[in-house]
């Protein structure tokens, strides 16, 4: 058995090879804790379990932030290679990982601690700023510095756009608990609604291009096969978000503009949620099919495995919101099934990652290694 950090020439290589993809762990861990703490069939200890995930997520997010900042400061020569690499697509994991912390604070901390709401309010603005960087800055680098083609396209294209959906949904959720008589709640709802709509509008055409890519060029390679679940992310989070927006309009606006206005908006949002949920279920089916097909070839480990956890998690959260909005035991049952699948996925990814952290083999940024073949510019998976 290989020793501790046996594959590292020096511990500083951890910092030098640290990439944004590591924040995908905080995304998966955060959403797992949230759905457990909000399980549709309550059981003793579910909030305690969710809180354990939450505390672990805080520690990891702080650690990853320090490591990423240290890389930028200590190894500035690695910045431009990162901008030219497809590793940059995972930058969106930073605001999405932070969003899971914000949402858990609203869900569990706010009811018992008065400062919880103010902390969530501050964190939301921070994630909103990072979201703007992700949806504008990363696509700019994709256009200017990177090489892409339809044949090598994967669900990773969505990574820079999904934060708009996630942050928008989180803001709609937050606005429901801010003081209704002040200006903050309507302001957050307005910004969040626009951001949510922008994110869904950006994601849908990319998902359409992805469908074209599957039909013309077969499933993605085994290195990137887990990215097949990424289209499920914006659709699942969109399902969750539009229902949160409907509830926010119902509670904040109500009959202010017309009799029954809030109820009408909520009803329209539920209908839209059904559409997004069904669309997401379609891509989840083909994601599992493609995963089964590539299993025969052997799927190499990379940090992209965490890309399977978050899409299933947000799809679970969206299913849960439909269950609550429609008081449906059918959707509660489906939610319970998805939670079980999510927890299994989390443990598989966590165990695989810990083993490679021990040897140090996971600390190898592809953007600093030998470049991929010119014909296959996306064959190196985001770690």
Automatic annotation (TrEMBL):
Family annotation (InterPro entries): SLAC1/Mae1/Ssu1/TehA, Sulfite_efflux_TDT, Voltage-dep_anion_channel_sf
One matching Pfam family: SLAC1
Entry's localization field: Cell membrane
Transmembrane segments: 21-41, 47-68, 88-109, 121-143, 155-176, 188-212, 263-293, 305-324, 330-354
Chief location of this protein within or outside the cell: membrane
Family to which the UniProt record says this protein belongs: Belongs to the tellurite-resistance/dicarboxylate transporter (TDT) family.
The protein's name in its UniProt record: C4-dicarboxylate transporter/malic acid transport protein
Annotated source species: Basidiobolus meristosporus CBS 931.73
């Amino acid at each position: 058995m290989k020793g501790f950090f046996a594959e590292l020439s020096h511990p500083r290589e951890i910092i030098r090879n640290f990439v944004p993809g590591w924040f995908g762990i905080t995304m998966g861990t955060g959403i797992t804790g949230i759905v457990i703490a909000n399980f549709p069939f309550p059981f003793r200890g579910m909030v305690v379990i969710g809180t354990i995930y939450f505390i672990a997520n805080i520690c990891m997010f702080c650690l990853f932030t320090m490591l990423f900042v240290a890389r930028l400061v200590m190894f500035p020569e690695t910045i431009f290679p990162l901008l030219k690499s497809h590793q940059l697509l995972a930058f969106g994991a930073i605001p999405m990982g932070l969003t899971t912390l914000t949402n858990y604070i609203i869900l569990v901390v706010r009811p018992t601690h008065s400062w919880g709401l103010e902390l969530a309010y501050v964190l939301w603005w921070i994630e909103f700023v990072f979201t703007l960087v992700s949806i504008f800055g990363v696509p700019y680098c994709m256009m200017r510095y990177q090489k892409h083609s339809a044949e090598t396209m994967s669900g990773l294209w969505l990574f820079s756009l999904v934060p708009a959906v996630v942050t928008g949904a989180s803001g709609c959720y937050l606005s429901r608990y801010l003081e209704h008589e002040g200006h903050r709640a309507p302001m957050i709802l307005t910004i969040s609604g626009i951001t949510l709509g922008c994110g869904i509008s950006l994601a849908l055409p990319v998902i359409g291009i992805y469908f074209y890519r599957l039909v013309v060029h077969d499933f993605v390679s085994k290195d990137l096969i887990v990215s097949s679940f990424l289209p499920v992310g914006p659709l699942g989070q969109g399902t969750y978000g539009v229902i949160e927006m409907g509830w926010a309009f119902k509670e904040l606006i109500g009959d202010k503009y017309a009799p029954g206005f809030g109820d009408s908006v909520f009803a329209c949002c539920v209908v839209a949620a059904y559409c997004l949920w069904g669309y997401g279920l379609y891509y989840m089916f083909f994601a599992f099919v493609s995963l089964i097909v590539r299993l025969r070839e052997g799927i190499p480990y990379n940090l992209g495995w965490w890309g399977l956890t978050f899409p299933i998690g947000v799809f679970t959260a969206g299913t849960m919101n439909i269950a609550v909005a429609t008081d449906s035991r059918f959707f509660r049952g489906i939610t319970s099934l998805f939670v079980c699948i999510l927890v299994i996925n989390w443990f598989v990814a966590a165990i695989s990652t810990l083993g490679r952290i021990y040897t140090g083999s996971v600390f190898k940024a592809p953007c600093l290694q030998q470049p991929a073949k010119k014909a296959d510019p996306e064959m190196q998976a985001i770690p």
